[in-house]
From TrEMBL:
Residues 401-420 have a biased composition (Basic and acidic residues). Residues 434-443, 450-461 have a biased composition (Low complexity). Residues 370-420, 434-461 are annotated as: Disordered. This is Transposase domain-containing protein. It comes from the Eukaryota. It comes from Puccinia striiformis.
Length: 639
């Protein structure tokens, strides 16, 4: 057919390789490679880098001096770069994104605001969407071409998560466009992958700023607007603006991104309020001083401007704040941008912890010997952080122990059953869970309420309602009932199944969706049958009532549409669940996740239904990246 066109042979160009076609049509993303210091993650251009890292943590600190090159045996005269960091240009990705047919029409669907309604079905209806402002004070989301992206930073092991396997940690920096309709946001084609943090270990809380800086610099420029030469609907070009919306990460990652102290900090364990480890049992957030965004920004700037590591350490230990590169964005608010991520906080946090620690479904741990006893941690004497990052002086040190090693999964040994259970006291304590009581007067100080709470809790501990040695499903009869109910349930094909051997080593580790299925579908009928078929005591009834609150929390979190009444109901159920744990299981140590969950209603009020902004899609992206064959050559190929 080409011969009939009568094109002169010298003018005919037929690429002989698919790579030439991809290059000529600019189908490949623009990848920028920088040299990354193996010690402190500082970035250098590949053109003319120094032989050793010259970065300083502070103006008065010594240089890093880590070699950036290494010699190889086969060619000693030509040293190789130790480590590269590859990033994708956000503006280049946006240009290709906006050149796809129909994409701009889909983005403009977020402009079609609906009438005021009591229900919230998407982040488009949320308070955050309506309050984002342009540089001149107008509603940012009210104009075509103004885009809002969520940010996720997370790490995965490309060698798999086997206990005895290799422990390599690569980090994804990814963004999702929230202007797209909900059913299109999670597609890998619509997620911007900025880059992968190089392994084998994670950057520390201070080093994370270096790998985020290229993206933040582009975001800062895009906030005021950048002229794109051509888009699918505007061949003559148009101005595009971008703002950073919610930051959706698990707990260790979001603390790194925000520059906040970790959850093991005694004085600054929460990024939303000033709760301390000693007051972690409080369920009334009104009695805890909230953090203030302007104050946080000032404290972070003071940390950045400190001239010595000792000054930085003092600021961090006092306020629990470091400088985050996100503060370069003029509009960035660490309080309204951060979210309590429900998948990790509720599904892999509260549900998993309740099933394992309280119900005895921790399948992969060996059972304790009969002579061992449960020795719970004191609620006020929580674990001391062993995270070197929180020492405040690790700016140029090698990557410290991973935050994930500090996730709150603690082993509880079997204990002796307490035969002196005071049933009347338990009944009275359960009646005290009335949530309609008047709030405390403003004259009541935090200290006095803390003492009252501690005193009440201490008196309950003396009668030890359940020392956690008598967990529900460590009873073989009850565990058999749970498995029978699980096997008898007929579920739709689109709902996964909980392993039939749940509660044993064969059952394996449950995933987030399996914990949800277990608690929402299987657990309640199983407990009803246990209560019906056995001479249930007041303790078992109280456990069942507490489970209903947890199930209600899960239902609201998973709802695709919520109302203000649902958000208030979530507050009530979270408060009742927490109070129930304090009364029914006084030996059970409060986890940081229990406190963070109390902030979830504010997140739903700010961002709308959780399924529209949670980390599911980013976790699937990590799963896809982890499945890419690497032939065990991690770090030797670009993104």
């Amino acid at each position: 057919m080409i011969s009939h066109l009568k094109i002169p042979r010298q003018q005919l160009y037929v690429p002989g390789d698919i790579r030439l076609i991809i290059r000529d049509l600019h189908l490949d993303p623009e990848i920028k490679r920088t040299i990354c210091c193996p010690r402190c993650f500082y970035l250098y251009p590949v053109d003319d880098p120094p032989h050793a890292c010259t970065a300083r943590a502070t103006r008065r600190s010594q240089k890093c001096h880590e070699p950036l090159y290494k010699s190889v045996a086969r060619n000693p005269s030509s040293p190789q770069v130790c480590r590269y960091f590859s990033t994708q240009s956000f503006m280049d990705w946006l240009a290709r994104f906006l050149s796809r047919p129909g994409i701009e029409d889909l983005l403009d669907k977020s402009l079609s605001t609906t009438a005021e309604s009591a229900s919230i079905s998407d982040i488009w209806d949320s308070n955050m969407w309506k309050t984002l402002k342009t540089s001149d004070g107008k509603q940012f989301t009210g104009y075509s071409g103004n885009l809002v992206f969520s940010l996720n930073v997370d790490w995965f092991n490309p060698s798999g998560n086997k206990t005895a396997g290799k422990h390599i940690s690569l980090g994804t920096i990814a963004m999702m466009c929230l202007n797209l309709p909900p059913h299109l946001r999670a597609s890998h084609d619509n997620i911007f992958l900025a880059g992968l943090t190089p392994g084998p270990s994670e950057p520390t809380v201070t080093q994370i700023n270096h790998v985020l800086e290229p993206l933040v610099n582009e975001l800062k420029e895009l906030w005021t607007g950048v002229k794109f030469d051509s888009t699918i609907n505007f061949p003559g070009g148009r101005i595009i603006k971008v703002m950073l919306g919610p930051i959706v990460c698990d707990l260790p990652a979001i603390r790194k991104v925000l520059g906040m102290a970790g959850h093991s900090s005694h004085k600054n364990m929460c990024s939303f309020c000033r709760v301390t480890k000693e007051k972690i049992d409080r369920v009334d957030l009104d009695r805890i001083r909230p953090r203030i965004a302007d104050v946080l920004r000032k404290q972070a700037e003071n940390w950045k401007n400190a001239t010595t590591l000792d000054e930085r350490k003092e600021i961090f230990e006092t306020y629990g704040v470091r400088y985050s590169i996100l503060f370069k964005l003029p509009y960035f608010d660490p309080l309204t941008s951060a979210v309590v991520e429900p998948m990790h906080n509720i599904f892999l946090g509260l549900l998993k912890n309740h099933g394992q620690a309280l119900f005895g479904l921790k399948s992969l741990e060996k059972k304790s010997s009969k002579n061992s006893c449960f020795q719970p941690k004191s609620r006020t004497d929580s674990e001391t952080s062993s995270d070197a990052d929180d020492a405040g002086n690790s700016d140029n040190s090698g990557s410290a122990k991973s935050d994930r090693e500090h996730k709150e999964e603690e082993t509880a040994c079997e204990g002796e059953k307490n035969d002196s259970m005071d049933v009347e006291e338990l009944l009275g304590a359960l009646q005290d869970l009335d949530l309609a009581s008047d709030p405390p007067s403003s004259s009541e100080s935090d200290d006095s309420s803390s003492e009252a709470n501690s005193s009440s809790h201490q008196s309950l501990s003396l009668t030890e309602l359940n020392p956690l040695g008598d967990r529900f499903f460590e009873n073989e009869k009850f565990l058999l009932i749970l498995r029978e109910v699980n096997a008898q349930f007929m579920l739709p094909s689109w709902i996964g199944r909980v392993p039939a051997t749940i509660g044993s080593a064969k059952g394996g580790k449950l995933k987030a969706d399996e914990w949800v299925i277990l608690f929402e579908i299987i657990m309640i009928p199983a407990l009803i049958r246990i209560l019906f078929e056995n001479s249930s005591d007041i303790f078992q009834i109280a456990v069942f009532q507490n489970l209903l609150h947890l199930s209600s929390i899960t239902n609201i979190i998973r709802s695709l549409e919520i109302t203000t009444d649902d958000i208030e109901a979530l507050r009530v159920h979270l408060k009742a669940y927490r109070q129930g744990l304090l009364v029914i299981f006084p030996s059970f140590p409060t986890k940081p996740n229990h406190h963070y969950a109390l902030h979830l209603p504010d997140c739903l009020s700010q961002f709308g239904p959780a399924p529209q902004w949670t980390a599911w899609s980013f976790e699937r992206l990590n799963g896809s990246l982890a499945s890419i064959p690497t032939n065990n050559h991690i770090g030797k190929s670009s993104v």
